[in-house]
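Input structure tokens:
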């Protein structure tokens, strides 16, 4: 495991930010960390980045224990926080050269490395621009460029798309995809769930410091699925149609939601063609009938509300 936590716990007085977190992330994974505000995502990432010490338990990065071997971990990771510090008097080139020198990258190698990360993050044309004058999206890409200077194995990104406009979010997502294809192990926390679904190989869902789920997106969706739910839209007399459907032998319950009749079927029923036949036989005109899609957003809402334990 390139990242492993065992009984990882962080307390702030009576507040439990992390509670016995067990997490295993394989090399080469892109791991999406999901949870509401205050769930413990940032605390986890800061511990892995060696910026916080756990109250108890253990965190390992590349086989090294956080706290005891932090000096061995730091050259192997790149940490991108959810905010960008002020560098009012630096241009982009100077900013990157400053951090390259901090990693003891000198001379011609430093010039080459800075040029490479500028090209990779599509910021080469901004090399002479003031850092403080960059847009939010460009600052975030510059943050990624900074942590790539020493070619880390693991990237830890805390809400990298927060506050970005749609174009900047797409650019950030494509950059992270390219870094993953290059072999980087990526841990990324985000509230933009549909983009995590496109990017990540595995996800973790955390709430109130406890990990509720860790696995593939497909497994999360499977666990969140609550039987077969059918969405039906009729052209008229929706209430009468709902009353008719409710009497069907395979329907457990119905509700009206966003213009649809939502019919939840018995657990062992997956064929809903008989509902369409029933409506047509009673002269209702069907505009749409489909099975409810369960995606990452649906899984997140159901898993974090305790619908699935």
């Amino acid at each position: 495991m390139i990242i492993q936590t065992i009984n990882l716990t962080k307390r702030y007085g009576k507040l439990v930010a992390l509670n016995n977190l067990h997490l295993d992330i394989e090399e080469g994974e892109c791991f999406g960390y999901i949870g509401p505000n205050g769930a413990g995502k940032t605390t986890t990432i800061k511990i892995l980045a060696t910026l916080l010490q756990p109250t108890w338990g253990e965190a390992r990065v590349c086989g090294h224990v956080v706290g005891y071997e932090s000096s061995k971990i730091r050259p192997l990771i790149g940490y991108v926080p959810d905010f960008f510090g002020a560098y009012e008097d630096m241009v982009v080139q100077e900013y990157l050269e400053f951090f390259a020198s901090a990693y003891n990258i000198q001379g011609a190698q430093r010039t080459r490395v800075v040029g490479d990360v500028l090209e990779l993050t599509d910021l080469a044309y901004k090399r002479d621009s003031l850092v403080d004058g960059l847009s939010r999206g460009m600052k975030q890409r510059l943050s990624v460029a900074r942590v790539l200077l020493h070619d880390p194995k693991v990237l830890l990104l805390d809400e990298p798309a927060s506050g970005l406009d749609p174009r900047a979010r797409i650019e950030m997502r494509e950059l992270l995809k390219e870094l993953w294809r290059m072999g980087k192990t990526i841990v990324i926390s985000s509230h933009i769930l549909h983009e995590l679904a496109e990017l990540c190989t595995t996800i973790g869902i955390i709430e109130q410091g406890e990990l509720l789920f860790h696995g593939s997106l497909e497994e999360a969706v499977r666990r969140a699925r609550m039987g077969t739910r059918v969405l039906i839209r009729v052209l008229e007399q929706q209430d009468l149609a709902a009353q008719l459907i409710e009497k069907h032998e395979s329907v457990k319950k119905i509700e009206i939601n966003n213009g649809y009749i939502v019919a939840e079927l018995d657990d062992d029923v997956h064929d809903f063609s008989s509902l369409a036949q029933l409506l047509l036989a009673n002269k209702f005109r069907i505009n749409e009938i489909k099975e409810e899609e369960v995606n990452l957003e649906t899984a997140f809402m159901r898993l974090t509300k305790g619908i699935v334990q």
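The first strand starts at residue 3 and ends at 12. The radius of gyration is 24 Å.
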